[in-house]
Amino acid sequence: MRYFFHIEDRRFFCRDEKGGDFPSLAAAFGHASRVAGELRDEGDHAGGSIVINDMHRSVILRVWI
After folding, report:
1. Based on CB atoms within 10 Å of each CB, which residue in 12, 16, 17, 65 is the most buried?
2. For residue range 24-39, what is the model confidence (pLDDT) as tens digits?
3. Cβ contacts of residue 20 below 8 Å, gap of 6+?
4. Is 20 helix (H, G, I), strand (E, B) or coil?
5. CB atoms within 10 A of CB 7
6. Would you report the helix, strand and coil content of the chain in percent, each value rounded to 5?
7. How far apart are CA 1 and CA 8, in angstroms?
C-alpha cells in the first residue's frame, strides 16, 4: 500500500507528493519513526510531527519528532 509522510511543525510544512510503498501500516510506522528520530537527533522540527496518510490522503497516524 502507498503511504505519504508529511513533515510539519509550527513554522514549516513539507507535503510528500510521491509517497512510498510499504507492505503494512506497521512498516510505514517504522519508517516514519526512523525519520523522526533522525530529525530529532539533528535538532530539526522540534515539537513537530510526521503525518502518515494513506493512498486516499486520509490521516492514519502521527509520529512526533
Report:
1. 65
2. 999 999 999 999 999 9
3. 2, 3, 5, 28, 31
4. strand
5. 21
6. 30, 35, 35
7. 23
Q: Could you tell me if 23 and 32 are in contact, meaning their C-beta atoms sit under 8 angstroms apart?
A: no
3-state secondary structure of 44: coil
Pull the grid cell for residue 22. 510499504
Four-residue CA torsion sign, 19, 2, 58, 33: negative
The reported pTM is 0.89
From CA 39, how far away is CA 25, in angstroms rounded?
21
For 38-60, the pLDDT digits (tens) are: 999 998 788 899 999 999 999 99
